[in-house]
Amino acid sequence: QELIDTLRQAGIPVFVYQAPNTIDEIKGMIEKLARVLGEEDSGQNLTGAMDRELAAVKQRIDRITPERRLTVLQFTLLGAGGGAGSLFDDICRHAGVVNGAAELGKFDLMSKEQILKANPDVLIMPMWDYTGEHDMGQYRETILSDPGLQPVKAVKNKRLVMVPDRFQSSASQYIVYGVRDVAKAAYPDPD
Question: Do residues 54 and 23 touch, judged by C-beta distance below 8 A?
Answer without folding.
Answer: yes
